[in-house]
Amino acid sequence: MNSFTASDSPSNLTEFSVSELSGSIKRTVENAFDHVRVRGEISGYRGQHSSGHAYFSLKDDRARIDAVIWKGSFSKIRFRPEEGMEVIATGKITTFPGSSKYQIVIENMEPAGAGALMALLEERRRKLGAEGLFDQNRKRPLPYLPQVIGVVTSPTGAVIRDILHRISDRFPVHVIVWPVKVQGEGSGDEVAAAIRGFNSFEPRGSIRLPDVLIVARGGGSLEDLWSFNDEAVVRAAADSRIPLISAVGHETDWTLIDHAADVRAPTPTGAAEMAVPVKADLEAQLANLAARLRGAASRQMDHRRQSVRALVRALPSLDQILALPRRRFDEAATGLGRGLERTTVVKRRAFERASSGLRLELLTNRLQQQKQLLAERMVRAERQLERQLLKEHNRVARAGASLSSLPARLIGQLQKEKQHLAALSRQSDTAVSHMLARSRTAVAAQDRVLQSLAYTNVLKRGYAVIRDEHDRPLTRAGEVDIGQAISIQFADGRIAAVTGERGEPIERVAAPPPPPKKKPAKPEVSADPPKQGNLF
């Protein structure tokens, strides 16, 4: 009797390979769940992969399902998925045979409701507010009259046309537009990059740094404006060193960038009105201020003119101011001629007294002494030179006597000494010649002084020298006796004479001064004329 097991009995079940079974399951699941809507919380979201796809999970309190958004579908989602956000995903269920897993391929996704978005928005507001990004002390005033305005908005919408039209009507200035997407995936990054890009301009670069920025977008739903609630946009607005105006949506729409901006405008048109004043109003105000300035200047000039006139009436006339200086000048002019005459007479007498004391014998003796001193110095110099030459000659002779026994090196040194001695001899001759020349020059100078002070030059001016019989000069009348023989020396020679009786001294009478010229009447002159300085 043969034994057998249950495994050896034939079975009616169809045999599948692993791939066939996985494919069958995949087709069954896709057919059964071709289009589904799933509500759940995003978990494990890390952003887009380098390929552009996004991988994460949807979960609730009891289950989890893997999810994927392909690159083509991701760009159609109107908001950015975030970790912990509750969403409603629309797509189809499929399996992944490689790991026996199933997942949902999401084609569209939206927040689970306005309440969820508002809760996320409120949580983000508290987080950024706690960091101080919404503090009022961070906000800066707008410039009163900007020259360049930067606008961050879509280049194709009606918003940019409204802004440009409003600025042109109020006060035309230069506007720089940074085109960005204002809705959809990546719009928040573009807006943040635009704000940082404007702030990176150099103040003196090729593109001028704007004076004020406007971030603008038209109205829309909460999902449409969600890009302006992005954390990157809020941080870029808070970090902007350029004053920023937020003009997102209508007056009732609020986004987080409104809290971080320096000023919030209710509409994009209102932002343009905040950025620039009305030119016509400024011109009218300027004209009014100019008129007030001209009136004030005119009144001030009239007031100053009246003050000057009052001061002029209190001032003395020109004749009164110049009366005293004129009188002093006339007095000085009157006494100037007489003072010069008196001073000239006094100086002449002093010169005559000084010249009468000069004698030729003194200068001659002084000159003889200088000549004798020079001759003695020359003799001493010649003797000293002769002794030096004799001494050197003897030393050379003694050295020459021993030349035969000296080596060649010493012979060369002796030759150098001979040359040095010859050079010293020439220098001494030159020094003696120069000393003689200086001495001759000094003697000539003394001779010129002697000639200039000689009494013979005084005789040429009409004076004479009286000498007695011993040829001594007579300087006093009391030294001359009656009948004494004397000689009188003139400039051209001498004559002999005999003195007679003494007569009365003749007083010297000064020549009368020339009559003064007629001058106009002058004020009375004080009895004591002003003192005259010494012209010599």
Written overview of the protein:
- The chain has 536 residues and is an alpha/beta fold.
- Among the domains are: 18-112, Nucleic acid-binding proteins (OB fold (Dihydrolipoamide Acetyltransferase, E2P)), CATH 2.40.50.140; 141-277, Rossmann fold, CATH 3.40.50.261; 360-453; 465-498, no CATH class.
- Helices cover 47% and strands 15% of the residues.
- It contains 13 helices and 13 strands.
- It has a 5-stranded mixed β-barrel with strand order 1-2-3-5-4. Strands 7-6-8-9-10 form a 5-stranded parallel beta sheet, with helices on both faces.
- α4 (158-170) links the parallel β6 and β7.
- The longest helix is centred in the last third of the chain and has 46 residues, at 408-453.
- The termini are far apart.
Rounded to an integer in angstroms, the radius of gyration calculated over CA atoms is: 64 Å
How would you sum up the global shape? elongated
CATH architecture name of the domain at 141-277: 3-Layer(aba) Sandwich
The assigned structural class equals alpha/beta
Helical run tally: 13
The biggest beta sheet, please? 5 strands, mixed, barrel
Order of strands side by side in the largest beta sheet? 1-2-3-5-4
Q: CATH class of the domain at 141-277, anyone?
A: Alpha Beta
The helix fraction, in percent, is: 40-55%
